[in-house]
Amino acid sequence: MQFDLRLRHALPDLTLDIALQGGPGVTALFGPSGAGKTSIINAVAGLFRPDHGRMTLGDRVLFDDRVWLPPERRRMGYVFQDGRLFPHLTVRENLRFGAPYSADAPPLDEDTLIDLLALAPLLNRRPRTLSGGETQRVALARALLCAPQMLLMDEPLAALDGPRKEDILPYLDRVKSQAGIPILYVTHAVDEIARLADHVALLQNGRITLHGPVFDVLSDPAAMPLLGVREAGAILHAVVADHGADGLTRLSVGGQFMELPGVDAAPGEQLRLRILARDVILSRTRPEGLSARNILYTTIDALQTGRGPGTAVVLQLEGQRLLARVTDRSVADLALAPGQAVYAIVKSTSVARSAMMRLGQD
Amino acid sequence: MMLDPAGWEALLLSLRVAFVATLCALPVALWLAWLLARREFPGKAVLSALVHLPLVLPPVVTGYLLLVAFGRNGPLGQFFEATLGLTFAFRWTGAALAAAIMGLPLMVRAIRLALEAVDPRLEQAAATLGTPRWAVFTRITLPLALPGVLAGAVMGFAKAMGEFGATITFVANIPGETQTLPSAIYALLQIPGQEGPAATLVLWAVAISVGAVLLSEWLARRLARRIGGRDAV
Questions:
Q1: ipTM of the complex
Q2: Cα–chain center distance at A139
């Protein structure tokens, strides 16, 4: 099922004018706070009516300048930032709330979801006694049990602190690969995008300035200013090769090997590795006598000087792209230029655990 | 503290009038409160003023207006007589109507506040789950506002028990038909030497009112605890 959204709306201090298409899998809508992300997702849900626009999902028109389906007839699952569980009902009653109004069987049935999201111990509890992560897991299951044709998630992890966020991400991974419906995921956290998104749309000044597969967008130097220089970094596909006795795991990245600690995945499994641009060091010659163990042989694809003293270097690596950020002086000293071969050095500990994820049906 | 048969009659009649008045006014009050709390429409201020009118008008004036409208020759009185065979003038039903009208503003106020306190974002969440609007009201809004609705009903009941001015103007003071507790107390006080029976009735009136308030407090606490999130066992 494909969705096609166009929308124009004048907010108090900016005008939204966006077009966004997508299909099954996670489309992440990324933008800073106040960029109008929530207005967009609420328009899709039917909770907010924009000045102009049109949205189709499959062959259904959800709204255009004449049609306006109310939220209860849109079949959009919505996971709100604050969960919005019904406080007077138990978790089980929350989960079953929408069942009477849905004619179709949900893509994942109740037992499957209870199992997938580990909800069994929560079923008789009341929302107010749940932690933030538990709340969001219940909210996710509740939305999916209404057999939605599309899932909307508005910064579902924003209210959680780091470790809690880490707890819930694996659940999102699983749902993402099993639900099989389009998911519109609004966030301003790059790590969530790196982990979950298949496509990314960057929202800036009310417009979508960059839209494409997550691997392309995150390795695009043009996205760097918006994602934040410290957060910028490409994603690599890696395959688990073998586990060493010393706890290091060898991963194959396009035929070259990286060694990382604490990889909890079986040989043959595919992972995403997010490698921050600021953690990559470049060398013209193969470095000797270096403690860093991950040295990848790459070719420079492009150089882009931005504001400040930094240059973004796009590296090619067997069809994949890696992003490095070095100072302008280094570019001059090393005489870096497109087409040139360089060694990219990545400290193994700098590849955060959270940056790794299993690839479902990529 | 023992009541004589006439006192009993007045007490039972008052209870019946108050219960019927509260039960009949409650759905109307709910609907009006929901309109005022959740809807925007032209004439909202006028509706709000109309609902509150019995609160500010002298009860005698309300009673007179009821007499004009619902009396045997009044347009509404004739309408109800013709369609439902329901007569209000000088009947206990008229006392119930007067009590309902007088209690309505109090009920609407309490219920409106309770409805406004329900987080509309929960209603939105219910709508995204495919819930039709009426079911959002019955399954989300109403249960969450229930303590306030209950408080409103108790206010309405207490007002109905105590209503005097509009009642006596509209349906007079007929023992066994329209002589409610306040009317009976008033009648006894007109007769020299009846201070004793009057005092007994007064004590009963106080006891019932205090009991109603205590009961509502207890129920509201229980409901609030349920909403407030103790786990189901």
A1: 0.84
A2: 19
